[in-house]
Amino acid sequence: MGKWRLIYLNEYDGYWNMAIDEAMLMLRSQGKIPNTLRFFVFRPSAVTIGYFQSAEEEVNLDFCRKHEIEVVRRITGGGAVFHDENGEITYSIVVSEADAPRDILKSYELYCRGIVYALEELGLKAEFKPINDVVVNGKKVSGSAQTRRRRVVLQHGTFMYNTDIGTLAVALKIVPEKLKDKGARSLEERVTTASKALGRPVGRDEALRALIKGFKRALNVEFEEAELTREELELAEKLVRDKYSRDEWNFMV
Q1: Are 92 and 23 in contact (CB under 8 A)?
Q2: Most buried among 46, 62, 132, 165, by the most CB within 10 A?
Q3: First-to-last CA distance in the chain?
Q4: Which residues, 6 or more positions from 104, have their beta carbon under 8 angstroms from its beta carbon?
Q5: DSSP3 helix / strand / coil % (the chain, rounded to 5)
Q6: What pTM was estimated for this model as a whole?
Q7: What is the C-alpha separation between 158 and 91, in angstroms, rounded?
Q8: Is 51 within 8 Å of 73 (Cβ atoms)?
Q9: Distance (Å, whole) CA 24 – CA 235
Q10: In the structure, what pLDDT confidence band is assigned to residue 2 with cuts at 50, 70 and 90?
Q11: How many CA atoms lie within 13 A of 221 on its CB side?
Q12: Going from the N-terminus, what domains does the chain have, and what CATH number goes with each?
């Protein structure tokens, strides 16, 4: 059983959250920080899009501007995600490739198991759905994305404990054909939250406690609580300024 750094619960805007994840990846590659699990909230609410996506095609930009929902591009792939500041916790894992499964699918399964076990802590039966989802009663409650750079794995993903599905449905451009591919006729048939599945409200503190227990069990590690280092914050600030806050990055203009 090894030791990982645990950082919780950061609250940053979308630009900062994505910059921090990349800064952690860069500094882990230099051996300046240990393997790390970070929990964070997007404040204000935000939409992140996958590295290869078009914001115009995936996001209702007029709605997001009107409701001050930021849109930011990730360095990971995958689809567009709505991060509800009042109903979702995001996790990120930064780990040396030497300490991670070499097989990408197996690594997804390992890290998503933290979400599966967290949901079990709440009293729900969940399962990993390849490639990168966790489902309850066949409905998606968490999605993750991963990249491998500089001999480091970065994986981050969602935990929808009480996400506003109605806002999610409007903020993203949901293509009916994609729902049909998943065997669903509507977003409500495809996506759920821990609160909906349990039939009672789940609060942020309860969700966070479950997540910490879930990931400790999945990773079989001891956590040492810590804060982001000054070097991480300084590098993230530079990444926000030069990359994540710029239309050239987020909209590829």
Answers
A1: no
A2: 46
A3: 47
A4: 146, 148
A5: 40, 30, 30
A6: 0.94
A7: 6
A8: yes
A9: 9
A10: confident
A11: 22
A12: 2-250 (3.30.930.10)
